[in-house]
From TrEMBL:
Belongs to the class-V pyridoxal-phosphate-dependent aminotransferase family. NifS/IscS subfamily. It comes from Limosilactobacillus frumenti DSM 13145. Residues 5-369 form the Aminotransferase class V domain. SUPFAM superfamilies: PLP-dependent transferases. GO terms for molecular function: cysteine desulfurase activity; iron-sulfur cluster binding; metal ion binding. It catalyses: (sulfur carrier)-H + L-cysteine = (sulfur carrier)-SH + L-alanine. It holds the Pfam family Aminotran_5. The keyword Transferase applies. This is Cysteine desulfurase. Its cofactor is pyridoxal 5'-phosphate. Keywords: Iron, Iron-sulfur, Metal-binding, Pyridoxal phosphate, Transferase. InterPro entries: Aminotrans_V_dom, Cysteine_dSase, PyrdxlP-dep_Trfase, PyrdxlP-dep_Trfase_major, PyrdxlP-dep_Trfase_small. It comes from the Bacteria.
Amino acid sequence: MSEKYFDNAATTPMTKPVIDEMTKQMKETWGNASTGYSYGRHAKLVMDNSRHIIAQSINAKDDEIVFTSGGTESDNTAIIQTALARQSLGKHIITTAIEHEAVLKPLHFLEKQGFDVTYLPVDQYGNISLDDFKKALRDDTILVTIMMGNNEVGSRMPIHEIGEILQDHQAWFHTDAVQAYGLLPIDVQADHIDMLSTSAHKLNGPKMIGFLYRREGINFPSFVRGGDQETKRRAGTENVPAIAAFAKAVELDTPEVKAERRQRFYHFKQMIVDGLTKAGVDFEVNGQVDPHNLNHVLNIWFKGISTYVMQTDLDLAGFAVSGGSACTAGSIEPSHVLTAMFGKDSPRISQSIRISFGAINTEEDVQALIDAIVKIVNQLKHVKEVQ
């Protein structure tokens, strides 16, 4: 059986050029970048070149890029360290109800420390209201942390508009761009972003490497305590091979490649919606099939079919899909994203799956997935009729 992977929002496979780059650096660049002799200088040069490539990808300065272990550490660092460093200016933070757990859990921690967090609601499409945001903004707001695009339903937040609103406010603006980086064009200067989190494994790079963009002048102590690496902003010996592989993945992810993928993934979405509709499947999209959104994510409610059953049957048929965020897939808790969109009593919460596309997916793969879903739905429908 040929297996087909449709859970690219969870992680993506490393491409051959990225694997080759990482393997090369593991063989040739094993020195500690913090040392002063030739081995260390070579490692530092590789790291600096990688930092430059990555900084250019978001229109940042090289020294505004801090390498981390990934999106979770970057989010935790930006949120917790900002709160602790700026609490004399206020203790109010604004976010959304559909953030990733890497944002929500640090905020829950801060609430226990006496911080006041406003969770902006979303509509049935997973969008926030700018009017709600403006009403929530207070004089004592010190941080706004709002994701660039949602990992479960693909909705995009009005990042540029929020950045504009905050221009004359004391609050620092952080965005979790883990799902968006690698697919959307990002310009931290044009959007007035102060901090931005990413993870390499979402764009065909290695796991356990990412970066936190920190605008020049955004100062707080290192979240990880220890050495003085990353100019005292993130302790720990740098993983130079992974950093170089990350840069290779970014280098390959040109503006032209991003544009082509957005168009192709949107086509895949339309194929699935049209194919299921033509086959008479009883379903609805959670969110919107809108080219403005993250086109690699498609969340579908299959009416009357549990998430577990659909996901398991597709797995047995050779298709990998998700029941929601991969980071909470093993939990019995319902999706907080779908709950925020439709309410805790909605059947969508326990009857939806997430399909997410990546560079490895083809039109033939998508058609095979459509055929498999239609077959499963018809089989389940027949079983119910017999009972």
